[in-house]
From TrEMBL:
Entry annotated with the keyword Iron: no
Entry protein name: Cytochrome C
Signal sequence bounds: 1-38
Alphabetized UniProt keyword annotations: Signal
Transmembrane segments: none
Molecular function as annotated in GO: electron transfer activity; heme binding
Amino acid sequence: MFNFGKRKASKPQQVKYKPVSLFLVVLALCLIMGSLLADATNAQTTIKAPTSEIGTVDVIPAQYKLGQELYLENCSSCHIAIPPAVFPSQTWKNLLEDSQHYGAQLKPLVDPPRTLVWRYLSTYSRSLQKDEETPYRFHNSRYFKALHPQVKLPQPIPANSCVTCHPGASNYNFRSLTKEFGNGA
């Protein structure tokens, strides 16, 4: 009857959690981690108050920023880099594929930088309209003309002449204009 020398091994007791309790614990951990991640992200990218001038063509999302930087690094070393929207995507595609660049022989971009530049240019350029020829000069670009209504432009338009009206063009700022054209830089 009594077993005095031997002990029965007891099984460890299992703690049973209710599904609702487990869900609440996981949810609380996710909220805490999300809050910490948001704080870390905000510390790295402080948002500045809006100013009267953006300082570039447009604000570029992070996934296109490196492509824009590579575009500016490669193109603005010889001439003023123009906004992608001035030419259609097909023009940019052809320019990236051809080492002959307006009479100069260039070292062509190779991948991955070429792909990054292409993603930036193709995202911010326009598409050709039906029966529109691919323009390679400003005076043939429908969009360039639309951006400059009632502006008498020299023919052909030299790329470096942008600073006449856009004093910040050499810094890729086409938003500011000289007093003669409107907002008084």
